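sanity check this record:
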Amino acid sequence: MLLPLFLIAGLRLAISEAGWILAFQGIGMLFLYPMVGFLTGRFGCRAVSAGGGLLVIIRTLPMLAMSLGSFRPFG
């Protein structure tokens, strides 16, 4: 909920730029949610939760780079 506000107000991205950045999260969830049941049954809850936590950390790194000013996705 705070990520769009951070992108628009904090990094001064245009609304359309922030929308394109956040669209990929929705697309990823659209494809991954149906597989969660299968993955949990095959690998167990701990492995799926640990993998999800690792993916969250990896996904946070570009946001950290943008907040430090060393990365700007659109120009």
